[in-house]
Amino acid sequence: MPIRFEGETARFDGACTVDEAIPLAEWMEATDAPRVDLGNCTGLHTALLQVLMAAGATVAVDPEDTFLKTWVAPLLRNDRSS
Q1: pTM for this predicted structure
Q2: Whole-angstrom Cα distance, residue 68 to residue 81?
């Protein structure tokens, strides 16, 4: 499974598809202080990005993938004024 839910951290691994959107949204809603580890994520479906943005997810580990680090990680940072 591309997303593993471990306590209050969701670990994304490889290419994460639209199939993970509902489980991610349900987990985010049920978790008090959800954090995400995008370190090993190589692809993130826009549905997952929307869930993360809507929930105001805290990114514990930025993605190593260059595209995700450059274009996606800034969207998920708590300080969106930059």
Answers
A1: 0.89
A2: 19
